[in-house]
Amino acid sequence: MKRRPIRVRARCLVVRDGRLLVQATPDGIVEVPGGRVEFDESLPFCVVREMREEAGVDVEPKDLIYIVEFRGEKRGRKRHEILFYFKCTMEGEPHSKERGLQFRWLSPDELSRAAFWPKPLLPYISSDMPDFPYVRFLSIRQDSVEYIMTKRH
């Protein structure tokens, strides 16, 4: 049996005026911006680097809000990913440096109508915005939460 890597990613939660910063990919998927952690790179530094590279902005990670283990399919490929979501402050306005990637500010209502990934995380983000009073660990298999642990800050 071929071993597949577990991917580790760091994401950036920025809320302004009740809207969450998201990135929309060319295939229509909306997700919190961030990217893959490189070898010997810290999670917070990954968030800073990815936002500079993809959005041309500086962010400062403040709090770790969500840890999400995702096992399922994304874009037709089986995945096992661990995602770390940091509440961040941001200077400036993001602008895409990658072709086809667009940054948008969406309200919880607009998020609910978007093709958000991972979908089972969306109700937590929407209800926790803008203060994010909880730290949550979610284990997601495809489209459902299998396990959740919540702790108040």
Question: What is the element layout, followed by pairings?
Answer:
Blueprint (H helix, E strand, L loop, with lengths): L6 E7 L1 E2 L2 E6 L5 E2 L2 E3 L6 H13 L2 E17 L2 E15 L10 E5 L1 H6 L8 H7 L5 E8 L2 E9 L1
Parallel strand pairs: 1-7, 6-9
Antiparallel strand pairs: 1-5, 2-3, 3-4, 3-8, 6-7, 9-10
Taking the alpha carbons of the first and last residues, their distance comes to 42 Å
Estimated radius of gyration: 15 Å
Q: In terms of quaternary structure, what is this?
A: single chain
Q: What's the order of the H and E elements?
A: EEEEEHEEEHHEE
Structural class based on helices, strands and sheet pairing? alpha+beta
Average residue pLDDT: 94
Description of the structure:
The chain has 153 residues and is of the alpha+beta class. The protein is built from 3 helices and 10 strands. The protein has a 6-stranded mixed beta sheet with strand order 5-1-7-6-9-10, covered by helices on one side. The longest helix has 13 residues.
